[in-house]
Structure formats: C-alpha cells, structure tokens
Design goal:
The chain is 77% helix and 0% strand. The chain contains two helices and no strands.
Length: 70
C-alpha cells in the first residue's frame, strides 16, 4: 500500500516536472515549440495514465475512498 502511494507521488512529481519543462520551452527565446508540445504531450499522457491507474486501483479494492469526518 505504501509502495502504491509512493508511486502516485512520483507520478505527480513527473507531471509537474514535465509541466515545468514546457514552461521553460515556452519562455525561452529560442522558440522551440516542438519541444514544448512534446513536454505537454508527456504531461497529458502521464495524467491520463495516473487517472486510469487510480480508477483501476479503486475498482480492484487496492485503495478505498474515505468520508469526511464530522
């Protein structure tokens, strides 16, 4: 279970890193829009993959939602 949480954190960090790379290519004066598009494609792919993994884990019972305590 802890390994799964660690994987989710690593995936979120990879998504943020990819977004940062896209921002860097956007703001750099060299105009490398191809590299920016590639970084954004990676970000979208990682995000969709993580969402599907979380949905699969919830369906398989590996993770369970918890309610808000009142």
């Amino acid at each position: 279970m802890e390994l799964f949480k660690l994987f989710i954190v690593i995936a979120l960090l990879a998504i943020l890193f990819s977004l940062g790379r896209a921002l860097f290519h956007l703001t750099s004066g060299k105009g490398s829009s191809e590299k920016m598009a590639q970084a954004l494609t990676w970000r979208i792919s990682l995000s969709v993959g993580l969402l599907l993994l979380i949905l699969l884990a919830a369906h398989q019972g590996w993770i369970a939602p918890h309610g808000l305590s009142r």
